[in-house]
Fold this protein.
Amino acid sequence: MYQSNVKKPAVEGGVPARETKIYYGHQYIDEADVQAVVDVLRNHDLTCGPKIKELEDKLCSVTGAKYAVVCSNGTAALHIACLAAGVGEGDEVITTPITFAASANCALYCGARPVFADIDPETYNIDPQKVEEAVTERTKAVIAVDYTGQSAELEPLQEICKEHGLILIEDGAHVIGTKYKGRANGSIADMTTFSFHPVKTVTGGEGGAVLTNDETLYRKLLLYRSHGITRDTDLMEHEPDGAWYYEQIALGFNYRMTDIQAALIISQLDKLPMFSNRRKEIVARYDEAFGKLPQLFVQREIPESDTTRHLYILRIVPEKLTIGRRQFFDALAAENVCCNVHYIPTYYFPYYEKMGYRRGLCPNAEKLYGEIISLPLYYAMTDEDVESVIEAVTKIAVYYERK
Ligand SMILES: *Cc1c(COP(=O)(O)O)cnc(C)c1O
């Protein structure tokens, strides 16, 4: 068992850069959010009420997408997006290994096989060239993740999908607030999924959504969200027995969102420009400070993406340091900067190993995983918080520099 050595000071004899611990992410809830939730509790509908449509309309106006279907969480959103795309038994779905497990698990839920395509070594997003190479006659969909909030290379990916008749699903769990070529992410791919988990830029406690411009996909998403049940007589096979009548015409799920969550997300979305600006400020400050240190590599941003960052990835340059990522991570913890790592390549997990996936599949992703640490990044960080994180990182990078 690995024993963390976090109790030791990072740098011999040093005083921690911070007196109190700071964590990598935290939600921001104001009085308007509290009031929005309380108002729902005092109203008639706790679920399937007016807040659901209001949130769906709001997501459309924020992103420019034609249709939005909100659901219980980002994983459910990915699942119904795969089902709407027609992903099934024997199909293949191409995705990146540098993501949360849900981006590949959703293919498994449908009986399909995830195929991992490697990332670009500098932007860390899925490499369209590698996607192209991974296409077979079984491929049904591509799930591109906007890792850290930077848009995936949507145009090249759309071209590949068009050429091979594939559906492009954008796992946009990190992307809310970002624009690609001047258009908000959420209005571009065949379907884009969002997550409203508390670490994400906008939260509902839990929550998810699928956005699309395609009416056929939209109708399918509505069915899969709620048991495959319809009250639309045009879709029914039999004559209605009466006003109560409905039919189940597909196998769907209960992936509904409550009005309580929807009200909170609506209220949070009012703050999106504010959240986005602050995140951009913090990222600019980190980039400026870390760009000066050859011991660190700053994530490359493609010019097409105007990014609202969900994660800030500190990447070490191993050749320039006498310590590795693990020691750097522990040293930061000793400075009271409590980080995380996003992500362990999905196919490293035993569940995937047992299905036959092996290390070595995606060398760029594997190298990245060995060198990254997610630093604190959230709206409510003060300037002092930001400076203390920079101080801690700089102190460790300088102390352990390989001369
Ligand atoms: C958070 C996240 C998800 C899953 O969202 P949940 O709302 O937690 O189910 C999927 N993909 C990525 C990339 C995520 O970061």
